[in-house]
């Protein structure tokens, strides 16, 4: 891609609908994304610091955050993205001012703005295919109203697979 080409970025609103989780039916159809997605959404401002992002992820026990700007979800960031952007010595006994300075960088500096998403009524196999095809670990889930209503991760899919295997 040419360095001077404009990049198209789409922003979503966070959905506040109370749509129910739709597990697969008894006819053998696959469970739907809505039945395994994680929610409620955990978001932070896109201009929050990497330190704040790390704290929020730890407090909520999550590995992905959605970034908001002017009330719209504009990007996603993983704990690995944050860890790679920080100095390994930041906040430690051997940290220099420069190392600790990485904690103050904005989280948007390491986020993914061109997010892949999936509809809430898509089968789990579709979510797995998208995650594998693009070597990513999470997909924001788009609800009936067009807003982001949850997130589905590799862990969610593995948890569902294990539950299906145990239930046999």
Précis, in short:
The termini are far apart. This protein has a single domain (33-167), classed as CBS-domain (Roll), CATH 3.10.580.10.
Total strands: 6
Beta-sheet strand percentage?
15-25%
How are the strands ordered across the major sheet? 1-2-3
Measured as a percent range, the helix fraction is: 25-40%
CATH topology: CBS-domain
Q: What is the CA–CA distance across the termini?
A: 48 Å
Order of helices and strands: EHEEHHEHEEH
Question: Keyphrases for this structure?
Answer:
single chain; 3-stranded mixed beta sheet; elongated; disordered N terminus; alpha/beta; 168 residues; CBS-domain
How do the helices and strands line up, and which of them pair or pack?
Elements: E1 43-45, H1 50-60, E2 64-69, E3 72-78, H2 79-85, H3 97-101, E4 118-119, H4 124-133, E5 138-142, E6 148-153, H5 154-167
Parallel strand pairs: 1-2, 4-5
Antiparallel strand pairs: 2-3, 5-6
Helix pairs in contact: 1-2
């Amino acid at each position: 891609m040419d360095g001077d080409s404009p990049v198209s970025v789409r922003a979503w609103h966070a959905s506040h609908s109370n749509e129910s989780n739709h597990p697969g039916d008894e006819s053998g159809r696959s469970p739907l994304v809505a039945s395994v997605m994680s929610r409620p959404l955990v978001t932070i401002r896109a201009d929050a610091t990497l330190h704040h992002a790390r704290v929020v992820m730890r407090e909520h026990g999550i590995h992905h955050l959605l970034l908001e700007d002017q009330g719209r979800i504009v990007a996603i960031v993983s704990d690995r993205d944050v860890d790679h952007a920080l100095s390994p010595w930041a906040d430690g006994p051997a940290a220099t001012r420069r190392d600790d300075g990485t904690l103050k960088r904005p989280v948007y500096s390491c986020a993914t703005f061109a997010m892949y998403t999936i509809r809430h009524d898509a089968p789990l196999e579709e979510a797995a295919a998208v995650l594998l095809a693009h070597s990513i670990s999470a997909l924001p889930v788009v609800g009936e109203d067009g807003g982001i209503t949850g997130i589905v991760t590799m862990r969610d899919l593995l948890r569902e697979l294990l539950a299906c295997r145990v239930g046999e």
